[in-house]
Amino acid sequence: MNDDKLDTRSKIIQSAIDMVGSKGDVTIREITDKAGANVASINYHFGNKNNLLKEVENHYSSLLYDIQYSILISEELSPYDKILQWTKSLSDFISQSPALIGLIVSLTTEDKSYKPVIIQKIYLNKELQNMVQDMIGAIIKSEDQRLLSFKYLQIFSGILGPVVNRLVENSFADEQSIIGLNSKEDLEEYIKLLIDTVLGTV
Fold first, then answer.
1. pLDDT tens-digit map of 26-35
2. Burial class of residue 173, CB neighbours in 10 A (0-12, 13-18, 19+)
3. Lowest-confidence range among 86-90, 102-106, 155-159?
4. Closest of 20, 18, 95 to residue 50, by C-alpha
5. Rounded distance, CA 191 to CA 130, Å?
6. Mean pLDDT of the residues in the chain
7. Other C-beta atoms lying within 10 Å of the C-beta of residue 131
């Protein structure tokens, strides 16, 4: 494959990454217009739009993994600060890229055999889970693996709670509820309270 073909492919991927991250659902025409390519190039380079979108999901999954891993191996942060920063990074990522949830739903609806990379790389990643649970254990001074798993699940569920709340409000509520987290400050206050409550450090 020559450099021109590689360059066109990369431009299409970058355009799709930019547009999905900011807009959500996009058409092939919108992606190719931004990339300066023709519509046929999607099929040529990727086979179809869904294959392109799977590469977009893979990009975001790798980005989030790298952010989280760098926090958890940091030698400058205490176990508490690692968990706090890990939680904030996941929460910020979901808040800043809400379209990613829709993308995952769309891809798995279209292709029942597709296993989202972000689920495998983040949620089901035993290495990350064990690192977080070890830190929880160090903070609460426990080696009870069942308890540590429960506390890990509490934190993860607490991160996803505001996302579910936002989806429900946007779909069914006539007006914003009193539990809406509408600013970065609100979300950070919520995350700190979540961590302190689960870890018993309030």
1. 889 999 999 9
2. exposed
3. 102-106
4. 20
5. 21
6. 87
7. 19
DSSP 26: -
**CATH 1.10.357 given to domain 57-199:** yes
Cα torsion 40, 43, 49, 53: sign: negative
Residue showing tokens 């989280």? 68
Superfamily of the domain at 1-47: Homeodomain-like (1.10.10.60)
Q: How confident is the model at residue 87, as a pLDDT?
A: 95
**What does each C-alpha distance from 171 to 50, 79, 167, 197 come to in angstroms?**
25, 38, 6, 30
What are the structural domain ranges in the chain? 1-47, 57-199
Task: Supply 169's token pair.
Answer: 């409000």
